[in-house]
Amino acid sequence: MIGNEMRFQPFELLTLATLIILLAAPAVLVKNSLRYRSFRPKTRSAIRQFYIATCIGIGMVWIYSTDVGNHWVDNYILRAAPLHYFFQTSSYFTSIPPHDYLIVFQHIPRTAGDSARTHLFNACDWDFTPLWRHEPDAPPVPIEWNETFVMNAKLIKGYFSLNDLDRLEQIRKIKVFTILRHPLERVISFYDYLGFSDVSSYFNISSEAYKDIPYAKAIHTASYTYNGLTYQLGDQMHFLSRNSTPEQALARAKANLERMEFVGFYENLAHDFWKLKTSVFKDVSVPFVFPWAYWLGTVVGYPRMRVLKYQHQMDSQMLKQLDNITNLDMEIYNWARKRFHQDYNLYPTFTDFLKDHILPICIILIISIFLMSVMIWLAVRGVHNYKSRRRAQTKTT
């Protein structure tokens, strides 16, 4: 969902209204039935607890199966300020041992790389991720490496291009890893994060939207979105510093990925994040709570990562425009998925995701209802025992 405004689709409104009716009607009917009134108080309490747990469980399924629900989870739970500030403290507890090689994270923009750093390797010697609203060096220009810094560093992260890494490798042995993401989702996500004007104008640097603003912003947009993945992996990301033909950039990008220590995929981070931890960062010292929390977030956000939520909001004309500026990126992405055996499915909507996962979701729903019923029962029992003790103490005094 582009922007922070939550918009209900007609199907979502209909589903929500139906759920409210289906959940509210039995509550009213049962509560007023003679049969219910004939039950013992403990039985009526158990029925109420099970009903509450069922409502919560069904509500969770609705959240997972709608754009609005996933948007709410993403913005108000996974990105909540208290959690964000807590996880940033990982930098005080993370330690990376020295190696005879330099670990390099070639960060592709909008692939959850900053979150991965925070939870796993938040002890970078250099984090070079400039964006124009923050730093004047954006988009990244070719880097002149400081040999002393390179020899003493343990880990660097940033929007480095292949040419930067080639020069870096002349100074010291490097081990590189990266994370890829579906190109169309990535560039529309970039617009959602930094964009202005309408989508069509933003991705056309010759449009009127760029007429009265610094030319650097147009170069910024083109560098990150005009086949930015291919040229970052196979040449130079900066739009004005690209020297390779499309064919050359594609070939070099594939060769770059082939020699990497690890290649992960945003859509499969629930699996790839832990694989990254146990391979590239197997000897990094970090409290277990930080990588575990990230992995748990990828599990909770599993539908969000497998659904092409941004494309679903674009019309055919807009998608055609985006295809023209990401055609090389799509070729690289599809090649990489086959090369690194990424066989997951992607879905156009959350409803399609729900239909394809109906059995595991039902199993999770049943288990969730049972566990929530137990927790509610324990909570009610605890409150009841507390009140009983208080009444007993009052009587003795």
Keyword list:
five-stranded parallel β-sheet, 2 domains, 6% strand
Concise structural overview:
With 397 residues, the chain is mainly alpha-helical.
- Uncertain runs are 4-8
**Mean pLDDT reading:** 84
The rounded distance between the terminal residues' Cα atoms is 61 Å
Number of helices: 19
Supply the CATH class of the largest domain: Alpha Beta
Question: What is the ordering of alpha helices and beta strands?
Answer: HHHHHEHEHEHEHHHHHEHHHHHH
Number of DSSP E strands: 5
CATH architecture of the largest domain: 3-Layer(aba) Sandwich
* Helix/strand class: mainly alpha
Helix percent band: 55-70%
Strand order of the largest sheet: 2-3-1-4-5
List the helices and strands and how they pair.
Layout: H1 10-31, H2 34-38, H3 41-64, H4 67-78, H5 81-88, E1 102-106, H6 113-120, E2 126-128, H7 147-152, E3 155-158, H8 162-169, E4 174-180, H9 183-194, H10 199-202, H11 215-225, H12 228-234, H13 246-258, E5 262-265, H14 269-279, H15 289-300, H16 302-306, H17 316-339, H18 350-356, H19 358-396
Parallel strand pairs: 1-3, 1-4, 2-3, 4-5
Helix pairs in contact: 1-3, 3-19, 6-15, 12-13, 13-17, 14-15
Give an overview of the whole structure.
- The protein is mainly alpha-helical and 397 residues long.
- It has two domains: 108 residues, no CATH class; 261 residues, P-loop containing nucleotide triphosphate hydrolases (Rossmann fold, 3-Layer(aba) Sandwich).
- 60% of the residues lie in helices and 6% in strands.
- The protein contains 19 helices and five strands.
- A five-stranded parallel β-sheet has the order 2-3-1-4-5, sandwiched between helices.
- Helix 1 packs antiparallel against helix 3, helix 6 packs antiparallel against helix 15 and helix 14 packs antiparallel against helix 15.
- The chain is globular, with a radius of gyration of 26 Å.
- It starts with 9 loop residues before the first helix and ends with a helix.
- About 1% of the residues have low confidence.
